[in-house]
Specification:
Methylamine Dehydrogenase, Chain H, mainly beta, single chain, 1 helix, seven-stranded antiparallel beta sheet
Length: 490
């Protein structure tokens, strides 16, 4: 599945972490990693699978906040008024010197009181150019910052880190070296971690969970689903309930194809999982004939790419996804339609109005008080509208859409315009603060390039994180491309 543009020597990073295996021995001293401050924000450029046509790759670009199946990437901590975030970075010089291209697991925060970001910290060099190894982030109830650094399949290890001090990003303890892909860690108050993730197995990939009361002692992996060749999932947590939405890979067509929409949730820390209407599911799910099935897109010859999951004020799930007719990019395989599937208490209601132009156009969904829905994503403003800097490649121009009638109609607010590169993978923080509502990166859709990182506030102002910092903190740069007023973030 995975293609690589750059062939780089394996980075010997184990010297920093050794002895990683000894870390798990009963009497071993903890392995502490002191992070390296980097004088600017640089995302990783990545591509996957050459297509041999004008679009060049199945997907590509600035993928520092990739993928939709890595979540969460950011977390607002009210106790210190900071939004902590992680991303896949790369050395500043890698855009000009491919031999320096490698994935750095980065962590930083935005201080809402001062309107500044700190120099991002490099936690580790993953020794690959593969953005599937990007990290995710979670905070526990004591304010410790946890970083889950992914692996893509079984070729490389994955890691779990915990900050040495609460709300601190300078030093981390290596908790565990193991293997997992597409990490989705959720801290459930008064219970601990419910860790959803993917494991690669013979012929495909399966969905798993592990639980831990403290992040150190973990249960054995428990398989949740393996229908045909496996799944991609997205998840979210609200008031102790964790929900996950997923598709499946048909046996006949393989991993480049994904279809059908499923949903299940747990209210008891993973002990039982149910469909939205409360039917207890027998796990692992192994057939399409399950109460977890929302819609049979396979019968419509449609592929499904899930983007985000949110809960409304009643705790009912809403799923943001995108459908198309083929895995290859290009207009002949469209239309690429964003859809929302919402649980209405007795059935699922699906609407499809917003348009994209690539399967991997990815954004986030907020549901606010008063049932206001807000989507931040690279979308078209209508048929025949601007397809972005690199048309039909991953991403485009960012737009904020709002709906007051559960997704039946939407009102747009452009966030970026006349950009040199495509913007994509807008990701929402946990407990999002209005001043930091979505995080994403940009990058050229058809060739290696630099990649900048951005965030938007709830009002639609866009800020670019500094690529060069002369001191420990700096103010993000306002990008007034969407008609935003001047002024700093809050």
């Amino acid at each position: 599945m995975n293609s690589r543009l750059f062939l780089v020597p394996t980075i010997v990073f184990l010297a920093v972490l050794c002895p990683v295996h000894a870390q798990n021995e009963p009497d071993a001293q903890p392995t502490i990693v002191t992070c390296t401050p980097i004088d600017g924000y640089h995302g990783i450029w990545y591509m996957n699978q050459e297509t041999g046509d004008e679009y060049r790759y199945k997907y590509s670009g600035g993928l520092g906040t990739y993928s939709a199946n890595h979540t969460p990437l950011a977390y607002y901590a009210r106790e210190v008024n900071k939004t902590f975030f992680t991303y896949g970075g790369s050395p500043p010089e890698s855009a000009e010197d491919p031999s320096r291209h490698t994935l750095w697991a980065m962590v930083s925060y935005y201080d809402h009181a001062t309107g500044t970001v700190v120099q991002p910290r490099k936690l580790m060099d993953k020794g690959t150019t593969d953005a599937h190894d990007n990290p995710t982030l979670m905070l526990d109830d004591q304010g410790y910052v946890w970083i889950f650094v992914a692996a893509h399949g079984r070729a490389r290890p994955a890691y779990i880190y915990k900050s040495v001090a609460p709300y601190d990003i300078d030093r981390f303890e290596l908790i565990k070296e193991t293997n997992f892909s597409y990490p989705q860690p959720w801290y459930v108050p008064d219970q601990g971690f419910l860790f959803l993730h993917t494991r690669y197995e013979q012929g495909g990939r399966s969905l798993y969970q592990m639980t831990s009361p403290d992040g150190r002692t973990w249960s054995e992996p428990e398989k949740l689903a393996r229908i045909q060749k496996g799944h991609y999932q997205i998840s979210w947590q609200r008031d102790g309930k964790v929900g996950t939405a997923f598709n499946h890979h048909p046996t006949e067509t393989g991993l480049n194809f994904r279809t059908n929409l499923y949903y299940m949730e747990t209210r008891d820390f993973g002990r039982t999982w149910t469909s939205a209407d409360g039917q207890v599911l027998e796990l692992p799910l192994t057939t399409k004939e399950t109460p977890a099935l929302i819609r049979d897109y396979e019968s419509q010859n449609l592929l499904v790419y899930n983007k985000d999951l949110a809960f409304d004020q009643r705790g009912w799930p809403v799923i943001l996804s995108l459908t198309s007719r083929h895995w290859r990019p290009g207009p002949e395989h469209g239309p690429h339609k964003y859809a929302t599937a919402r649980w209405a208490g007795g059935d699922w209601r699906i609407t499809s109005l917003l348009l994209g132009d690539n399967n991997y156009d990815t954004g986030c969904l907020h549901i606010e008080e008063g049932n206001l829905w807000r989507v931040i994503a690279p979308t078209l403003l209508g048929r025949g509208s601007n397809h972005g800097p690199q048309p039909y490649n991953t991403g485009g121009e960012m737009v904020m859409w709002t709906s007051t009638n559960a997704g039946r109609t939407w009102r747009p607010q452009p966030l970026t315009a006349d950009s040199p590169y495509n913007h994509s993978y807008a990701r929402k923080p946990v407990h999002a603060h209005p001043g930091f509502y979505a995080l994403w990166a940009d990058g050229h859709g058809r060739q290696p390039s630099e990649s900048r990182l951005y965030f938007a506030d709830r009002d639609g102002r866009v800020f670019r994180l500094p690529q060069k910092m002369d001191g420990p903190t700096a103010e993000p740069e306002l990008v007034p491309l969407g008609g935003a007023p001047a002024g700093g973030a809050n």
